[in-house]
Amino acid sequence: MTISDQQLRAFFNRIDVDNSGTLTPTELQRVLLNGDWSPFNLNTIELLFSLFDHDRNDTINFNEFMGLWRYIEDWKRIFSTFDKDNNGTIEIPELVTAMKSFGFNISEQMLKKFVRKYKIFYNVEGRKSMLNDFDYAVSFDNFVQLCVTIKTSADNFRAFDQAGTGWVKINYEQFMEVILKNE
Hints:
- One of its GO terms (cellular component) is cytoplasm.
- It comes from Glomus cerebriforme.
- There is one protein chain.
- The chain is mostly helical.
- 56% of the residues lie in helices and 7% in strands.
- The two termini are 34 Å apart.
- The relative contact order is 0.10.
């Protein structure tokens, strides 16, 4: 379902509880929900702010919100494409397929490390849990965060791997610059 700019404006105004004309991370987190009605985690909210708070004032105005909303809607379509069993999470095999379709050849073992970084896992029944084994999947917000993180990391790597060999040699200062870019 496509939402009109007028409907989006009305929605924005309802979210903007302090009537400031902008949204704070807290206001945005109240309305961004996963398929299980859990709110987006704060790390994903901060990531979205870093992408859409163009004037860097730690708030999102309506124009920035329009871009953010469309971005999330695009990610929802992508997520549903790879959530083959429609359980609201993407399991590791589905995640491997998604990454390959995005052009990222990442091993299952490395994806498990990335998923583990987000600390909240979903077991195959979709219940939140802290699992010690590798029988877990990611929710929608963690999927977005994971994909953006992998893309950003890959872009940083490719900036150094201009020959496309899959190998880079960087010094300590260059490495630290990459870390600072990703924070």
